[in-house]
């Protein structure tokens, strides 16, 4: 060894030469662009607590029967269940609603919009068209609509933009309803509201409407997490949209939420009836029930005058695990 050499310096030099050699041995390495649409693997990771059937895109396939039962659940009941589960940021209010007396439920497809930036918009269009096979015709605001299936609700964050922020008009509205048999929830606006109102069955929760065309905004992602006002929304969530607000429910909780809310509704119906009859005092109904009231409630359920919203087996299993 040369007595004037520095062993530590020689080792560092060798490591640097080795690192550069590795780079030159990989001349075909390419950086993969970020997808516009989330991959099934990413959606499955976001919704990992769901154990049931899924769509090909990875979203949970909550049953149609649960979606139908959810329509009868109040916003307060759904909100209460979610808060008890630790989900405190799933509600948004202050909407303009096309058909306020009609509830809408469905499986969420998300879209994120941002103010226009030309270099990013070019990357999004190149990636979407060339790598993901999306339509080169028209604007990118049609891309989320192209992937809708029956029972989906198109939920978009248009960052509250009203003028020049109209995400759809009546042409796209017709396309949405034809594919999903549902409507939209937009933190943004729509145009052609008169034409949209003529689409039988179509409904919309939005922040406003304007006759202007969409300008100076761009689509940046499909089926990624988005923010709708106070709420964080994931693809595959289930939406409950009513006159009094919108709730976004994690798919893995929706069946439990429906059943819990249905039983709460029955408890309230029983309690209100007994209070009107003067059988119990308000304090007795509002506190933990005595064995006498529990027995009275079970007898009332067994003689319920209408059709119960759940099966008898579902009800029996639920009551076994609850101390009411």
Overview of the structural elements:
Keywords: Magnesium, Metal-binding. Its cofactor is a divalent metal cation; Mg(2+). Pfam families: RraA-like. InterPro entries: RraA/RraA-like, RraA/RraA-like_sf. One of its GO terms (molecular function) is metal ion binding. 35% of the residues are buried. This protein is an alpha/beta fold. The strands form 3 sheets. Strands 1, 2, 3, 4, 5, 7, 9, 12 and 13 form a 9-stranded mixed sheet that branches. The protein has a two-stranded parallel ribbon with strand order 6-8. About 6% of the residues have low confidence. Helix 7 links the parallel strand 4 and strand 5. The chain has 12 helices and 13 strands. The protein folds into 2 domains: 212 residues, Glucose Oxidase, domain 1 (3-Layer(bba) Sandwich), CATH 3.50.30.40; 67 residues, no CATH class. Helix content is 40%, strand content 17%.
Top keywords for this entry?
324 residues; single chain; two-stranded parallel ribbon; metal ion binding; 12 helices; alpha/beta; magnesium; Glucose Oxidase, domain 1
């Amino acid at each position: 060894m040369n007595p004037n050499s520095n062993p530590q310096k020689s080792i560092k030099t060798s490591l640097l030469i080795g690192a550069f050699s590795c780079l030159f041995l990989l001349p075909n390495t390419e950086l993969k662009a970020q997808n516009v649409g989330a991959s099934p693997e990413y959606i499955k990771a976001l919704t990992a607590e769901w154990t049931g059937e899924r769509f090909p895109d990875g979203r949970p396939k909550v049953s149609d029967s649960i979606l139908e039962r959810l329509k009868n659940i109040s916003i307060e009941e759904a909100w209460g269940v979610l808060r008890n589960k630790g989900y405190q940021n799933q509600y948004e209010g202050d909407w303009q609603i096309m058909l306020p007396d009609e509830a809408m439920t469905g499986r969420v497809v998300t879209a994120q919009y941002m103010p226009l930036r030309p270099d990013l918009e070019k990357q999004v269009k190149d990636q979407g068209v060339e790598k993901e096979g999306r339509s080169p015709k028209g604007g990118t605001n049609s891309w989320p609509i192209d992937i809708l299936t029956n029972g989906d609700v198109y939920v978009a964050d248009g960052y509250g933009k009203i003028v020049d922020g109209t995400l759809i008009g009546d042409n796209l509205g017709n396309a949405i309803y034809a594919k999903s048999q549902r409507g939209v929830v937009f933190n943004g606006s729509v145009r052609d509201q008169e034409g949209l109102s003529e689409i039988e069955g179509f409904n919309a929760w939005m922040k406003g409407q304007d006759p202007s065309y969409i300008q100076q905004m761009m689509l940046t992602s499909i089926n990624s997490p988005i923010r709708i006002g106070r709420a964080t929304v994931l693809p595959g969530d289930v939406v409950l949209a009513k006159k009094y607000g919108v709730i976004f429910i994690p798919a893995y909780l929706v069946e439990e939420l429906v059943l819990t809310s249905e039983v709460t509704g029955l408890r309230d119906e029983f309690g209100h009836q007994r209070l009107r009859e003067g059988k119990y005092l308000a304090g007795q109904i509002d506190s933990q029930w005595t064995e006498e009231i529990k027995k009275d409630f079970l007898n009332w359920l067994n003689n319920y005058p209408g059709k119960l919203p759940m099966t008898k087996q579902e009800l029996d299993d639920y009551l076994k695990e609850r101390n009411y």
